[in-house]
Amino acid sequence: MSLDKSEVEKIAWLARLAIDEQDIPDYSDELSNILELVERMNSVNTDGISPIAHPLELSARLRTDEVTETNQRDHFQKDAPLIDEGCYLVPKVIE
Amino acid sequence: MHQSTLAQLSAALESKQISSEELTRLYLDRCKKFNESLNCFITINEDEALEKAKQADKQRAENKHTSLTGIPVAQKDIFCTNGIKTSCGSKMLDNFIAPYDATVIEKMNAAGFVTLGKTNMDEFAMGSTNETSFYGPVKNPWDSERVPGGSSGGSASAVAARLSPVATGTDTGGSIRQPASLCGITGLKPTYGRVSRYGMIAFASSLDQGGPMTQTAEDAALMMNVIAGFDERDSTSAEQPIDDYTEKLNDSIEGLKIGLPKEYFSEGLDSNIAKIIEDGIKELEKLGATCKEIELPNTELSIPAYYVVAPAECSSNLSRFDGVRFGYRCDEPKDLSDLYTRSRGEGFGKEVKRRIMIGAYVLSAGYYDAYYLQAQKIRRLIRDDFQNSFKDVDVIAGPTATGTAFKLNEMMDDPVSMYLSDIYTVSVNLAGLPALSMPAGFVNKLPVGMQLIGNYFEESKLLNIAHQFQQATDHHQQIPEGFE
Q1: Predicted confidence band at A59 (pLDDT cuts at 50, 70, 90)?
Q2: Range of the domain at B121
Q3: I want to staple B144 with a disulfide (CB 3.0 to 4.6 A). Which of B139, B418, B428, B471 is the partner?
Q4: Taking every pair of C-alpha atoms in chain B, what is the biggest distance, in angstroms?
């Protein structure tokens, strides 16, 4: 599998990553090499094998719907880059 | 005193041979002195550590202590530490002061451990050399031109150089065991779910597991007694009761059946390493174990499957870093999309971006079945291989890494070669099994680790075997020149 420039740009957009134009050839080579490695998986026939997502195949635990955490908005927002009156600020979305 | 194990320091504090404050000062001095050359700490918490040490001495004077109260520890910078910078080795979190403690940190604090600082690591734990860190590479104390391994390279280097008696690590594809092997220390990756992931910055959630990095198996057992156990704040935490991990350390290993996977001793293994591992196995035989060859036929597929599962989960986990709520934010974003893409593009390093992109690709429309689903099926094959083996043997032994520590810059431009070097470690994570690396000897004055893989929740058995091995050998007692 070889990824060309437009595919690298598309993946970078899907991942919301700005990448420099000049780095695209390197990404194209490196990602293609990784995908080539990954495609070795296709050497084995896995028809009829069911996939596992959790190594111990445990199902998700349920808990009762109770309040266990208190509101710590101000404490958590100390790490925020830009806030105003408890709201996170981002560039204008709606004109 | 700095050559002491956790067990010995506990005894020294108990007998009032030394106070926690004196001990903490001694280690802080070593950290400050050697960090310039080794770069194993991102943050050294001198003031907080001394304050905690004084508290520990007070607790001991008032008889309100545990056996480990007042002993210093180094924490991998992937664990959130309330009020202390938690960077995960990334520019993205260079300004992040964690607002809460990870469960591992909470438990260690409650046991009285004194945190010396936060250790350097590959960015977001993605790497096998510690060179992807935003804070620069860590050096291996056995040879300063070599890497300590990764991703828990700072922790491994700090324990090997005796800058801290013990440290924490995390292991997603070998990140505790491989640096333990390359630095000549003991490292245990517990069963998936045995140690809480709460507050441990997520890389690949179905693979990540925290664990101890120590000089000895006994110390790893003492640390497991503190950090293991069910945590309702971790949705995949195991509910099984925990062992007293020290209880079986002194059991005889007479009659133990060890499986040697032929795939782990094939052409990819350096012949000098193979010799060390074979000698180590003979030592275990002398202690009464018997060995037989086994097969793990899907070992080759573990790397490709891992490099689908781990990037897929990382691309999802790392989507939280968006420049809005915490972490790095680019200057003067022109719109929301520019804010997201530039904050992420500028905040993440190259290896992290590669993995996020691979993950986004394999999860994208039209490719899911060919990549992610196929990888999850192979994951079952790998797990079944191990389960079949455990019908015949108690434990599996082999090398931890294909070689000794790499030279700095050797792997940086070739991610695929770096990935292939994880061949003996990643299948354990895909299967969720516990595994340990222990010092087994040296090649050209560089340490070599032997790996022991156990069945689910059999950490006590691995620690027992390693402890018995360490009673009969002295590889784990070797200290690199200049750090004695």
Answers
A1: confident
A2: 6-258+392-477
A3: B139
A4: 70
